[in-house]
């Protein structure tokens, strides 16, 4: 834990997953883009979704799910204050204020602040297939948004995020694999602003 905090302030050489995580959360990596494949592991059949993400720390992101190449896929956008979940097929938008509990959830871990040591127990794991792994467990069970553990994997050569794995309180598992990861990306000023179309139904989930 002390090593993670030290790395966040002074930087450190790469040697393990904790070091790679610390470097990944540093200021120079505050803007990130990547393609992703999300797999929800089922008992009989896995559910696989693909898409594209953009992140501007702190707490701004776009998470776009593709729908077989169409523009109807689900979109999740945060402007740093409010999170919008957009279902274009249903023409429906659900929004929620980005509050304290949501800030601590694994779902927005990549876009959150670098001070994750206050919220998670951070532990190195063995490297597997040239990926440096680190495990994060929430210190307070009520702040985990349903997840028991989060694992983050970093490429051993580039030290960029390559995988995230989640396990929920009911034993459910999911995995997100990233490719074409870029850091230091320059986004348009309104990239993380979402304007609700007048024809859409709006649901307040606060």
Could you describe the 3D structure shown?
The structure is a single chain. By secondary structure, the chain is mainly beta. It has one domain: outer membrane lipoprotein receptor (LolB), chain A (Clam). It is 10% helix and 45% strand. The protein contains three helices and twelve strands. It has a twelve-stranded mixed beta sheet. Helix 1 packs across helix 2. The longest helix is centred in the first third of the chain and has 9 residues. 26% of the residues are buried.
Rg value: 17 Å
- Please, what is the average pLDDT? 81
Biggest sheet, strands in spatial order?
7-8-9-10-11-1-2-3-4-5-6-12
Summing up helix and strand content along with how strands pair, one would put the structural category as: mainly beta
Gap from first CA to last CA: 34 Å
Using the coordinates shown, work out and report the CATH topology.
outer membrane lipoprotein receptor (LolB), chain A
Q: CATH homologous superfamily?
A: Lipoprotein localisation LolA/LolB/LppX
Helical segment tally? 3
Overall number of structural domains:
1
Topology:
Layout lengths: L1 H9 L6 H8 L6 E11 L5 E10 L3 E6 L9 E5 L2 E6 L4 E6 L2 H4 L16 E9 L2 E8 L8 E9 L5 E8 L4 E11 L17 E4 L2
Parallel strand pairs: 6-12
Antiparallel strand pairs: 1-2, 1-11, 2-3, 3-4, 4-5, 5-6, 7-8, 8-9, 9-10, 10-11
Helix pairs in contact: 1-2
């Amino acid at each position: 834990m002390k090593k993670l905090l030290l790395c966040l302030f002074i930087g450190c050489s790469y040697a393990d997953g904790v070091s790679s995580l610390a470097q990944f959360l540093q200021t120079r990596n505050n803007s990130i883009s990547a393609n992703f494949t999300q797999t929800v592991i089922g008992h009989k059949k896995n559910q696989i979704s693909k898409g594209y993400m953009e992140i501007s720390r702190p707490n701004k992101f776009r998470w776009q799910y593709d729908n077989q190449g169409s523009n109807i896929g689900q979109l999740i956008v945060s402007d740093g204050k409010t999170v919008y979940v957009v279902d274009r097929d249903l023409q429906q938008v659900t929004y929620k204020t980005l509050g304290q509990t949501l800030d601590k959830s694994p779902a927005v871990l990549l876009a959150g602040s670098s001070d994750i040591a206050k919220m998670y127990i951070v532990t190195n794991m063995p490297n597997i297939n040239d990926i440096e792994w680190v495990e994060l467990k929430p210190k307070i069970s009520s702040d985990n948004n349903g997840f028991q553990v989060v694992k983050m994997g970093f490429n051993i050569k580039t030290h960029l995020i390559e995988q995230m794995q989640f396990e929920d309180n009911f034993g459910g598992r999911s995995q997100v694999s990233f490719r074409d990861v870029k850091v230091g990306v320059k986004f348009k000023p309104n990239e993380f602003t979402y304007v609700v179309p007048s024809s859409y139904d709006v649901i307040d989930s606060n």
